[in-house]
């Protein structure tokens, strides 16, 4: 194994400490006012995405060693939350859901293992339930299932309105939440190592720019989910694009004033949704612009969404995904490190001065050694990247110290100096 932060011993000691502390996770993470808390203490985090975990754990060519290694390295870097997929829809042998309500048990056991290993290492997981995109099946697969059943479904956006397709997704929600983990012997809906459910990854509904169709879907699905599981937090999975309820914010804040049929304000006003989410990918949204402009955009993007979360929504905010791609022209490790520093400093500063209402951020994404064939340009391997590891470890330390500096249960309007 490559040296971690200059010392294998350092990794081993930190991993041992993390494993010892993880013997018994505390209670569920709850929303109290505009903060996250667990057992009366403020819960702040530094975290990461790793969409590949279930598939790797379920692979007949894997014994789960990459999943275990990832969580050990993440825990050693102080990371405490991992966002990953609880979906893979389609007819492939690698799929979780083969047809509506029919699942590959071996793949499900892979997800069981992921949750179990997270728990062993003191991490919590956020599980996303379907993809907006065609990767891993997504909305398009649900529409295809309906068409194969002889139904007339003109558009992929009918995922949000067609009763049969909505029924398919409700079955998926119900099956996932009631799943009995074969490793922990605990139903998912009763497991505090699951921090939150996320309805959909980065949703779009471009056929309805008003956002009304998508908001109605969120209301229906959130209400349904909460009737099964009221233990866990529930988020939507938005990137943060503003919509028709705040046209001034569309013009001022959305990259190129784009509207994609979702509405950050309207959707997060759904009572059953516990927190707001935003993502930050300026390399995709601001192609061809300078790094200075991308940096300034991200700082303003995060601050605006935090301000709206506490003033208009009265809910905590989470950065659900951010990253810097090696595939962007002009990329360098130095530019990436500066970007991470900007994001981390923004989260910490806003959280510190805003009564801990900015709960944390999840970088996209972590790999371990031997995954080169799956590179997406954003990946970081902690054991091979001392600079990234130092940035991540420092942010983990800062957020942990901030969480322990006193509990705020205020319902005031927070301001950042």
Keywords:
417 residues, alpha/beta, 15 strands, 41% helix, 14% strand, single chain, 3-stranded antiparallel β-sheet, disordered C terminus, disordered N terminus
Which of globular, elongated, flat, extended, rod-shaped describes the shape? Answer: globular
Uncertain regions: pLDDT < 50 for 5+ in a row? 1-23, 407-417
Q: Biggest sheet: strands side by side, in what order?
A: 10-9-8-5-4-13-12-11
Structural class: alpha/beta
The helix tally amounts to: 13
Average pLDDT: 92
Number of strands: 15
Biggest β-sheet description: 8 strands, parallel
From the alpha-carbon coordinates, what is the Rg to the nearest angstrom? 20 Å
What's the end-to-end separation, in Å? 45 Å
Query: Roughly what fraction of the amino acids lie in strands?
Result: 5-15%
Topology:
Elements: H1 8-21, E1 30-32, E2 35-38, E3 41-42, E4 45-49, H2 53-58, H3 65-76, E5 81-85, E6 97-99, E7 102-103, H4 105-120, E8 124-128, H5 138-148, H6 163-178, E9 194-198, H7 212-228, E10 233-235, H8 247-253, H9 264-268, E11 276-280, H10 282-285, H11 291-313, E12 317-322, H12 333-353, E13 358-364, E14 366-367, E15 380-381, H13 386-403
Parallel strand pairs: 4-5, 4-13, 5-8, 8-9, 9-10, 11-12, 12-13, 14-15
Antiparallel strand pairs: 1-2, 2-3, 6-7
Short description:
The protein is α/β, with parallel strands linked by helices and 417 residues long.
């Amino acid at each position: 194994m490559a040296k971690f932060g200059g010392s294998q011993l350092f990794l081993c000691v930190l991993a041992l400490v993390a494993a010892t502390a993880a013997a018994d996770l505390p209670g569920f993470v709850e929303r109290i006012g505009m903060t996250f808390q667990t057992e009366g203490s403020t819960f702040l985090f530094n975290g990461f995405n790793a969409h590949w975990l279930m598939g790797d754990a379920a692979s007949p060519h894997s014994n789960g060693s990459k999943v275990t290694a990832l969580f050990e390295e993440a825990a050693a870097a102080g990371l405490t939350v991992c966002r990953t997929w609880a979906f893979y829809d389609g007819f492939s042998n690698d799929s979780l859901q083969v047809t509506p309500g029919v699942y590959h048990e071996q793949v499900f056991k892979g997800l069981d293992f992921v949750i179990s290993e997270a728990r062993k290492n003191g991490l919590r997981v956020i599980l996303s339930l379907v993809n907006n995109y065609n990767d891993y099946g997504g909305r398009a697969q649900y529409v295809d299932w309906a068409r194969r059943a002889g139904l007339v479904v003109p558009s992929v956006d009918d995922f949000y309105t067609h009763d049969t397709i909505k029924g398919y997704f409700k079955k998926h929600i119900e099956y996932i939440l009631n799943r009995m983990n074969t490793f922990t012997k605990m139903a998912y809906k009763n497991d505090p190592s699951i921090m939150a459910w996320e309805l959909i990854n980065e949703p779009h509904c471009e056929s309805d720019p008003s956002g009304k169709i998508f908001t109605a879907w969120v209301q229906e699905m959130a209400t349904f989910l909460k009737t099964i599981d009221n233990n866990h937090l529930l988020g939507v999975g938005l990137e943060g694009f503003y919509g028709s309820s705040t046209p001034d914010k569309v013009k001022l804040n959305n990259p190129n004033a784009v509207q994609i049929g979702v509405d950050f304000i309207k959707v997060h006003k759904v009572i059953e949704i516990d927190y707001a989410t935003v993502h930050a990918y300026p390399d995709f949204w601001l192609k061809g612009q300078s790094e200075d402009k991308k940096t300034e955009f991200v700082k303003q993007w995060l601050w605006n969404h935090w301000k709206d979360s506490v003033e208009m929504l009265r809910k905590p905010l989470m950065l659900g995904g951010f990253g810097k791609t090696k595939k962007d022209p002009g990329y360098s490790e130095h530019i990436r490190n500066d970007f991470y520093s900007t994001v981390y400093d923004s989260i910490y500063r806003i959280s510190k001065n805003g009564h801990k209402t900015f709960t944390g951020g999840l970088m996209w994404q972590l790999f371990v050694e031997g995954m080169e064939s799956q590179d997406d340009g954003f990946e970081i391997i902690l054991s091979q990247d001392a600079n990234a590891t130092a940035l991540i470890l420092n942010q983990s330390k800062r957020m942990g110290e901030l969480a322990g500096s006193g509990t705020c249960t205020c319902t005031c309007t927070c301001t950042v100096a």
